[in-house]
Amino acid sequence: MPSTHTILVTGATGNVGRHVVSGLHALGADVRAMVRTPETADLPEGVEVVYGDLTQPATLEQAADGTASVFLLWPSTDISDAPAAVEVFARHASRIVYLSALEGPTNQRPNGHWGDVEDLVTQSGREWTFLRPGGLAANVLGWADQIRTGVVRWPYGNAGRSLIHEADIADVAIRALTEDGHVGAAYPLTGPEVLTQAEQVRIIGETIGAPVRWEEQPIEEARENLTTAWGDPAFVDMALAAWAEMVDTPEQVVATAEAVTGTPARPFRQWARDHADDFR
Ligand SMILES: NC(=O)c1ccc[n+]([C@@H]2O[C@H](COP(=O)([O-])OP(=O)(O)OC[C@H]3O[C@@H](n4cnc5c(N)ncnc54)[C@H](OP(=O)(O)O)[C@@H]3O)[C@@H](O)[C@H]2O)c1
Q1: Residue nearest to atom 44 of ligand 1 (CA)
Q2: Annotated domain spans of the chain
Q3: Distance 14 CA to ligand 1 centre (A)
Q4: Per-residue pLDDT, 104
Q5: DSSP-assigned beta bridge partners for residue 34
Q6: Given the DSSP bridges, would you call strands 127-133 and 95-99 parallel, antiparallel or unpaired?
Q7: CA of 48 to the centre of ligand 1 (A)
Q8: CATH architecture group of domain 135-165+190-252+263-280
């Protein structure tokens, strides 16, 4: 057993990390939030906030010092600094819970940077748990400006998704960080239902009390807009191909979050209620 119980949370200001921090703090755990701008972090009173930049591994030494476990996310597809970062975390902590991603219906090792970071974590020799969500419901915050106009113009309105509430991922993370029964598990995580993108928009409109209409966007227009917005043509192609596939083969629903936490995953309608102010 490590002599400390300090849990380091990276991505502490993000959708998932913010809930991991507040959930651990509410449990009375010794939580340390790693952020890049402590002045604006706005985390619960009493939480230790430290500076750290994943792309500057030297800055991680102090953040990781004296920790027992780490909640890790990797915030971009560029993982050139990930080997050094994982090495620092693994030298200090005995457990790493990594926010990865779900790949296909069989929960196999994900492609791309998620799988590469999983490999780094397993090779570190430390205890590990992988959280593999499908789509985060928080992705639809990207529609907020359009929702305020009453029309969302986007491709593939019939793509069926099982988006997960970020708080459900955090609840699983907290279990994996604080309990011993999750070591070596790679958990596929989804929301409790499949909704098309057009249905998601309708539900947000109903929740905020202002009807919102879906308008199907031609693919080439979407490709151009998304490439400008995201700056990564390969990622845009991947997203468009994935949505196209979800029209005929909607995403699956898995009950892992409930199996781990004992509480059913939150429905999208609840996510919309929790975020109503973000769309008003
Ligand atoms: N969106 C999806 O559908 C989906 C699906 C599967 C997996 N995922 C994975 O989930 C993760 C994103 O989780 P999220 O939505 O909770 O995060 P998020 O809301 O996108 O926030 C990103 C977090 O990472 C931090 N960060 C960014 N660059 C950093 C750096 N160089 N050093 C240290 N911290 C840095 C940000 O902190 P600052 O406040 O300093 O910016 C912020 O706390 C990603 O790894 C993504 O691949 C997402």
Answers
A1: 75
A2: 6-133, 135-165+190-252+263-280
A3: 6
A4: 82
A5: 50
A6: parallel
A7: 20
A8: 3-Layer(aba) Sandwich (3.40)
